[in-house]
Design goal:
450 residues; alpha/beta; Rossmann fold; Helicase, Ruva Protein, domain 3; 4 domains; five-stranded parallel β-sheet; 14 strands; 47% helix; 13% strand
Length: 450
Amino acid sequence: MKKPSILLIDDDDSLRRVMEFSLTEAGHQVHAAPSGEAGLALFEKESFDVVVTDITMPGMSGMEVLSAVHRRDPSLPVIVITAYGTIENAVEAMKQGAFDYITKPVSRDELRLTLEKALKIRRLEKENVDLRAEVTDRYCFESIIGSSDKIRDVIGVAGRVAASDASVLITGETGTGKELLARGIHYNSRRTKGPFVAVNCAAIPENLIESELFGHVKGSFTGAVKDREGRFEQANGGTLFLDEIGDLRIDLQAKILRTLQEREVVRVGGAKPALVDVRIIAATNKDIERVVKQGTFREDLYYRLSVITLIVPPLRERREDIPLLVNYFLKKFNKGSDVRMDPRALSALMSFGWPGNVRELENVIERASVLRSGTVITPAELPDKLLNRKRGVEDIILNLPEEGISLEDLEKSLIIKALEKHKGNQTRAAEYLGITRPTLIYRMEKYELK
């Protein structure tokens, strides 16, 4: 483990040697300098974790050292040493950004404790920077796996949108990666240092969603034992991601619209508005224009949210991305092991319909990684539904009329026949058609089937 590097500056030779010995004994790598000028010369050549400097020295003073150090690295802790009678100088140094001060005669224990505090703060700040860089890398657009034209087109538009503050509406089936795209937009925007707050509007009980979004004041309802800020306030200065916004109650849609227009939020039971600076990215797996026509989603809110609309394609429409995704998930779930996919197993993955999209593929690869007995995943580790291929369209005899046929009428007819076959059981009809139950319900709503 690398030793912490300390720059020690003091014109008192005796004191400097004592401090250097004490800090070296404590396990630090110490670079000592007899003057401010010599200390800054070292500072230009080396990288340090903490600077310790006397405040009163001939030539360049400790205050000038502090100023020069912080011009290059404002976050670097600087500890100043001062005589008892000139503590006001140390106080001034603290105002100018010094981490702390130590008075002469210097106590070995005080020096070490103060230094350890400074090093701890330095480590935490570095970890925070590293973590933010890791998060940014994880949610940069390059982390969205796929080389197909459809997914690259979506990413290209998202990259241009990120530079603005425009509201974005992301549509697509469940499991296609709408939140991942939303995070990519946030972490590539000027709001990247602000919070990214995600809310699944469909997952929060109806009686709690208003408080969750807008907050509440103490006593506004049973259980409100203290004031609580909502997600809009939590996202102030950043991005609020409203997932499944198509499921939001119509009265709350009006309140969200007002919040967007006025840029202020009023807590449940409160009267005083609070200003919020929030970018909205919304997402839904519904045909939002159809929902607007049905009157269950406000048209004015739809236009407010859909300044930019991004449509994430389902996995079945970008099958060429499946091998890339498979390799990514194999590495994710088999770290340190060179695991690969048997060609027969990959063929089964390529031919499956993936009603649950990328999320379903990820779950399948995780399952196979757990069940594997060697370094090659075979068809035996895949779920039966991927291997028991249903009859495809090519197996069905269709008499296509010369004058053409309506694809929507054909889809509607298949849904009706599947429901009739399974006596109206939506779950079994969805399984028969190779789609999820929510997708079947969406299609039934689309064709007004009861």
